[in-house]
Design brief:
This protein is mainly alpha-helical. It has one domain. The longest helix is centred in the N-terminal third of the chain and has 27 residues.
């Protein structure tokens, strides 16, 4: 995840200067918090009878927090919005999603004993 933030910060610096770096940091924090919360939901609800609850709660965190952040940044029209934070959130989200998916699959497989 840190590597994803560094790449996003590099692009942000090249396109928008220091505001682009801060946009990349904000995007990485938003996606990092949402993916961490989704992984915690997978840990808390990993029993077979709780799988649907874990899936739905994980989806709420995984998709809801970045969406709320995008709406908040875009409606604020501050320097981060003009530095492309919405695009950064989308890019960091898409880059980090396979990482989070692989980690959650490991959590589910470890609960099955496999």
């Amino acid at each position: 995840m840190f590597f994803v933030m560094l790449v996003a910060a590099g692009f942000g610096r090249a396109w928008y200067g220091i505001d682009g770096v801060w946009a990349a940091v904000a995007a990485s924090v938003v996606c990092g918090v949402s993916f961490t919360a989704a992984l915690l939901a997978a840990v808390w609800f990993r029993r077979p009878r709780q799988a649907l609850h874990g899936l739905l709660l994980g989806m709420l965190f995984r998709m809801g927090l970045p969406l709320v952040a995008i709406v908040g940044f875009q409606s604020g029209r501050g320097p981060l919005a003009s530095a492309g934070v919405v695009g950064m959130i989308a890019a960091v989200y898409l880059a980090a999603l396979p990482i989070e998916t692989l980690l959650s699959l490991r959590i589910v497989n470890s609960s099955r004993g496999g």
